[in-house]
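Objective 1.3, modelling of assemblies. Example input:
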Amino acid sequence: MDNVIKNIIGKDISIGELFEEYRSQIEEHSSEVLNSFRGEAFDTFQETGIPSNKVENYKYTNLQPFFKGDFKFSIAPGKSEQNVEDVFSCDVDTLDTYTLYVVNGWYYPLNDLEGLPAGVRIGSLAQLSKDDPAFFKKYYGKRVPYLSDGIAAMNTMFAQDGFVIHIPKGVVVEKPIQIVNILMSEESLMATQRNLIVMEENSEAKVMVCDHTLSTDKFVMNSVTEGHIARDARLDFYNLQNQHNATTQVAGFYFEQHENSLVSTNNLTLHAGVARNNIELKLAGEHAEGRAYGLYLLDKNQHVDNFSYIDHAVAECFSDELFKGVLDDYSTGAFTGKIMVRPDAQKTNAYQSNNNLLLTNDAKINTKPQLEIYADDVKCSHGATVGQLDEDAMFYLRTRGINKEEATILLMYAFAYEVIEKIKVKPLREQIRGLVEQRFRGELDKCHSCVVCGQKGTEITCL
Amino acid sequence: MLSIKNLHAKIEDKEILRGIDLNVKPGEVHAIMGPNGSGKSTLASVLAGNEMFEVSEGEVLFNDKDILDMAPEDRAREGLFLSFQYPVEIPGVSMVNFLRTSLNELRKYRREKPFSASEFLKIMREKKNLVEIDSNLTNRSVNEGFSGGEKKKNEIFQMAMLEPKLSILDETDSGLDIDALRVVANGVNKLKRPDNATVLITHYQRLLEYIVPDYVHVLYHGRIVKTGGKELAHELEANGYDWIKKEFEDQ
Ligand SMILES: Nc1ncnc2c1ncn2[C@@H]1O[C@H](COP(=O)(O)OP(=O)(O)OP(=O)(O)O)[C@@H](O)[C@H]1O
Ligand SMILES: [Mg+2]
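Predicted structure (tokens):
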């Protein structure tokens, strides 16, 4: 089977045409449920296309140029996707986790997930959607805005694989579930990944998704993670991004929360090329609690755009957001904090803050709170700051013999720590604390080290 | 040890130090007094290397080295210590990490081996006893949420850790309760050696009863306008600064 797709530009083929050309091949290998969404998604995409900065929600990141150029398009898993262990063996693991790999959007077939609690299902989206169509019909696509957002539509058109996590009623998974997403290829690659998390009533899990690039090729990743969190369920979700500069990743996280559930997301961008995160928490049951945190550490020409959307759909919910960024060189960043308080959502508590540290005059950040409040009994606060390193603190440290570089590292770390403190899984927090410090010291192998397990790939210089 | 000649410094074209002359020898204690806004903290800050101030004239030799072109960290490594009038809170930087980095930087400069974690903790325990600092404070971020007095004690604790040659204590006594004042003063006295020196900036005679100065200087309008022995402090306590201001204006 030929899994190599023509160059989008080389053959002057648009993403839409590409889909039409390969639709039957995709559908032949996919489940009925996934296929049932493609038509409408395609119709939407034909209207929206890839969002430019003229689209309000993408104002600070024009994605169009990044989705153009010479790319192979990953339509089926290729050879490299089947030999992960040769390049990537995670045996230095200091964290006790259930670990699974996803390569270029494809669930790695040899994932070994022994010892999962009874009833817990972790596996491939392609496979599970064939094995359990009833389950998939109930959840798949229900929270993803594939009828309005061009990127979500494109993802839904091409969606074939990714991971699924299903935690049944009342089950607590103690060990964190770690997903290592790997991009590796011998040529520029555009890939799609679609994930589904379903947490039934009163279940609990900690999920960490760790994004890497293992070759220097140009990558474009369109990834969507959908989560359904039933009443009383608790999900801790971490995304650690450590990708090289020639990577563009658009990652959508769409979580729906029911009564008394608790979701906490933490998007930690240690290194990226162009990254756009769409983080949506829909608080759809009373007393649901949604927490969205993020930390982005940028230098050179990196660009990170976090778009968060907290939807208070019903009364008595709580949300808290904290995003912090350190921007060096001529990097750019954006934060949008959309909070919707619907008319029935009385007694809403919503807090948001975005703080940025600019280390140079060339670094830029756009930060925008976007509050739409249609209820009257609401407590809502938001704040954004953009600042430089505290000169007084810098002087204080220097008078104690600490040089400027070291003092800068201490202060950058001090700035970031508030977000790191939000990480509840202690070994993970310690690990990330160390990584952030390494990152500030310029010691983190930006291109290759596996954030969570410390594994390094081959020696390749960064851009 | 310290020799200041005709030191002028300004900020945003406003001249604050207008020709300071001061000599400090090893083993000496100097007190600098003077009305609010006269330039005491500015002098301390300029000596420590604060780049906010521009030195427009003069010379400062510390152990025979010209320090005006030195970075603040190098002055500290040479053995200069400033206890801040207003110590800065640095949330997120732990006391332990801060002190250990600081101490090891100084050692590195002197080509000594960095302290291991356990050696460091041992020294920290010793010095903590010396200044009777609350154990919990060293488990927190630098000065974060410390009370006024705790911040001052923390400065002396750092001084004890770093063992400087010259310590400039900028109003370390203000904000301390009577017991704390005694503890701080005792700390300073215990750290006193024939080869180090102390400059005390203070408004109150009280501190000088515990730490007896060899010289008392009055700084007024950016200049040292009067120098005397410890009895000068008594005179100031009794009569205030008016007579000095008058003397100055008459000149
Ligand atoms: N950053 C600054 N910008 C502008 N003026 C300053 C600055 N720092 C100090 N000054 C001015 O310099 C003068 C001297 O200030 P300094 O803090 O040295 O006084 P001081 O003698 O320590 O007073 P105090 O007894 O109140 O502590 C004051 O007039 C003050 O307003
Ligand atoms: Mg002062």
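The interface with chain B takes residues 390-393, 395-404, 406-407, 410-411, 413-418 of chain A (CB under 8 Å).
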